[in-house]
Amino acid sequence: MLNRICATFAACFALALTAGVVQAQDSPLVCSVTKAVECDDKLHCGPLHESLITPTFLHVDAGQGAITILAPAERRGESTVIQAASQQADHYILGGMEDGKGWSMVIDRDDRSMTLTISDEYAGFVAFGHCVTEGDLSP
Questions:
Q1: 50 falls in which pLDDT band (50, 70, 90)?
Q2: Taking the model in full, what pTM does it have?
Q3: What residues does each domain of the chain span?
Q4: In angstroms, how far is the first alpha carbon of the chain from the final one?
């Protein structure tokens, strides 16, 4: 069961993180993942399994409809398709599904805090982080 949960998380997290950049005034976002937890179907929640190579930085480009992992190096370039995107008054909502798993990402428009969820019938994952507009990365 743990292997299935880890494989599910790795696949979904890669896809969801690819959606880490939301179109903000025609500029993609770069998002960092600062905390993440997993819960199984018995409601046992805790830190991610040590075998997971958790993405730490994501490029989210709603205009191109993709989220791409930037780091760590062994995951760089993995991406997922953003299948739904919505701009609300105070936040962005992105979502999609792949390989039987669903994901959603919500990014606050003001402080750029981010929450990402990924789930299937066996497990759920929640990641937290922050995003910056890609153009704001230069000194």
A1: confident
A2: 0.79
A3: 2-133
A4: 46
